[in-house]
Amino acid sequence: MFDAHWPTRFPLIDFGLGIACVQCTRDAKATVSDQMVAWPCAVVEKAIANAP
Ligand SMILES: [Zn+2]
Question: Whole-angstrom Cα distance, residue 30 to residue 9?
Answer without folding.
Answer: 12
